[in-house]
Design goal:
single chain; 262 residues; mainly alpha; Chloroperoxidase; two-stranded antiparallel ribbon; 10 helices; globular; peroxidase activity
């Protein structure tokens, strides 16, 4: 009786959410290619099964966990829902985000290119390349630009199907800006390397390393400021190295800055 009752109770009891609550995905739960969204799911801020995530849930999760303005959270949802292949969908699941060529793109900081297979699971060797460019205990925008550019070069050199849309390129800027100024300090554009490594590798908020929910509200202007700075530094680095990524990726009009990836 006891052994059959407890699993049934667990099935109908809502998962707790909070900074002190954490569990990895179970056998029938899904995760995606975004380390921070996976992290919020493991903590229960997003549904722990990773499925059927609504606009309201997205907005509340980003605000409650990271103090991200709900308007910005809503913009993120608008992009995330485009990955759901069901017509007129009103929710998305984390594994939808791995559908290649929508938001997911080549040259990820921690995932394989679609050409090589799985785009969702963490890839340690790819992440090791990324973090090798974080050369101090504190990551700054130049280090982020160097890491991102290195991943571009490796992907272009090894993936015969390499491609990068303008939207994918801007999501790349958003991803790199976000791990610095959402996890770290939006005023200085820096973040302790240990915090970022922990989120990427363990998909858990680094509370034990001293991280706390930011006191100041993170807004769209904060994101746009640091995406622009990252783009400026990246373009200067690309030009200095004669990298063809700069010429390829800057074609076309820039999409709105109201999006980012984790």
């Amino acid at each position: 009786m006891k052994s059959s009752f407890l699993p049934a109770l667990a099935a109908i009891t809502p998962a707790l959410a909070g900074f002190d609550t954490w569990a990895p995905a179970g056998p029938y739960e899904v995760r995606g290619p975004c380390p921070m969204l996976n992290t919020l799911t493991n903590h229960g801020f997003l549904p722990h099964d990773g499925r059927n995530i609504s606009r309201e849930v997205t907005e509340n999760a980003l605000f409650d966990a990271l103090n991200i303005n709900k308007t910005l959270g809503s913009f993120l949802f608008d992009f995330a829902i485009t990955t759901n292949p069901i017509e007129n969908a009103t929710t998305f699941s984390l594994n939808d985000l791995g559908n290649h060529g929508v938001l997911e793109h080549d040259a990820s900081l921690s995932r394989s290119d679609a050409y090589f297979g799985n785009t969702i699971n963490f890839n340690q060797s790819i992440f090791d390349e990324t973090r090798s460019y974080w050369v101090g205990d504190t990551i700054n925008i130049q280090m982020a630009a160097n890491a991102r550019l290195a991943r571009f070069k490796t992907s272009m050199a090894t993936n015969p199907d390499f491609s990068m849309s303008e939207l994918g390129r801007n999501f790349g800027f958003g991803e790199s800006a976000a791990y610095i100024v959402v996890i770290g300090d939006k005023e200085t554009g820096t973040v302790p390397k240990a915090w970022v490594e922990w989120v990427f590798q363990h998909e858990q908020l680094p509370l034990h390393l001293g991280w706390k929910r930011p006191a100041g509200l993170f807004q769209e202007d904060d994101l746009g400021r640091w995406m622009d700075e990252l783009e400026r530094v990246t373009n200067a680095t690309e030009s200095g190295e004669g990298c063809p990524v700069a010429k390829q990726a800057r074609r076309g009009a820039r999409p709105p800055r109201s999006h980012f990836g984790f």
